[in-house]
Amino acid sequence: MTGIDEARIRQSQSADNHHMSIDAPFSDDDDNSMSDMLSSGDDSRTDRGVDFESMSDDLRAVLQNTLKDREIKIVTECFGIGCQEKGLEEIEQRWVLPVNVFARFVRRLSRRFVRAAMHAYS
Question: What is the pTM of this model?
Fold first, then answer.
């Protein structure tokens, strides 16, 4: 009827079908279980914070090696590195430059910083 050998069907039906808890260890001498390996769905890796902190430290080092103190303050606020990200108008209020000159200045700084960061990570 199905074209499958009857012995093969019986073999499949008699296969070990016992259920196992996802919390059960993989083996007697192992503490890991399937629940340890499954994602929780919210991407809450424990090393995510460490990755973020490490990248922030690396970016600060690139800033220190590439830009002057005043430029570092501007770029960190533009990109929100170690602080809340701010818009050009908000940042420009602290500096005595016309808005159009300030915007060009920030674009040049950003390009320098991005090139230096890409070089540092390559």
Answer: 0.52
CA distances from 11 to 2, 6, 17 (A): 16, 9, 12
Distances (CA, A) of 9 to 1, 14, 17, 96, 103: 12, 9, 14, 83, 74
Distances (CA, A) of 10 to 1, 13, 15, 31, 35: 15, 5, 9, 36, 32
pLDDT digits (tens, 9 = 90+) for 81-98: 888 888 888 888 877 767
Beta-bridge mates of residue 25: 33
C-alpha distances out from residue 21 to 36, 43, 51, 112, Å: 12, 23, 32, 54
pLDDT in tens, 12-36: 776 666 666 777 777 778 777 777 7
Residue by residue, DSSP assigns 49-83 as: HHHHHHHHHHHHHHHHHHS-HHHHHHHHHHHTSSS
